[in-house]
Amino acid sequence: MTDSSATVRPDRHAELAGGLAQVRSRIDDACAQAGRDRAEVTMIAVTKTYPASDVLALAGLGVTDMGENRDQEAAGKAAEVAAAGVRPRWHFIGQLQRNKARSVVRYADVVHSVDSVRLARALATATADRQEPLDALVQVSIDGDAARGGALPGSADPAAGLEPVAEAVADAPGMRLVGLMAVAPLGWEPERAFARLAEIADAFRAVHPGATALSAGMSGDFEIAIRYGATHVRVGSALLGMRPTLR
Ligand SMILES: *Cc1c(COP(=O)(O)O)cnc(C)c1O
């Protein structure tokens, strides 16, 4: 093991505590303004590019949910964190290749990025012998641009239509369909994106009443996502600092 598993330095701990206090107060304010119960919104700390020591420090500060977007990085980090005796709820939020499904289901509690029937089936196979079902969100495309990923609302496309993907998840014994996830499309005002997402989610819940989770909003736009019903906000840079590389 490397230095990354060591306890964080006091200055880093103070930095994380400060970031967390700010994000928590932004979430409190957004819930108050939206007239929503604070308990309805879960903050996922997106720890990609940051070491296991940061995860341990955040867990020590009371953060229960962590997000990662790359299997190789996440698998190693989750193992390091587990070796330290800490077991956060791990959310896989990134684009996922089918050949990584087997690895991801070993440490993830939730996958937010199921966006094709083929991926849903790969996860279904991989979760066949899990003890606990894997919670799964279908990632939807808000602008309907298939090229940028996300299942297509209102489309019967057997490979990537929202309903076919949701059915593939719902039919898998090892998975539980819990809701929808989306990222605001490039070039869209967050207002417009999350208003559209709220409509998609309303229609979706009419068909899948148990699928109440809505994963939307990142550091720059989570207040708006909360106004439009987000139950899970995915916060990286506002908590941990700017990442050295954009991804
Ligand atoms: C990196 C990432 C986030 C967090 O982004 P920040 O702007 O750093 O808060 C949220 N969601 C997804 C899918 C991401 O990849």
From TrEMBL:
Cofactor list: pyridoxal 5'-phosphate
Pfam families found in the cross-reference section: Ala_racemase_N (PF01168)
Keywords: Pyridoxal phosphate
Modified residues (N6-(pyridoxal phosphate)lysine): K48
PROSITE patterns in UniProt: UPF0001
Family: Belongs to the pyridoxal phosphate-binding protein YggS/PROSC family.
Purpose of the protein: Pyridoxal 5'-phosphate (PLP)-binding protein, which is involved in PLP homeostasis.
Protein name (record): Pyridoxal phosphate homeostasis protein
Taxonomic source organism: Micromonospora arida
Lineage, broadest ranks: Bacteria, Bacillati, Actinomycetota, Actinomycetes, Micromonosporales
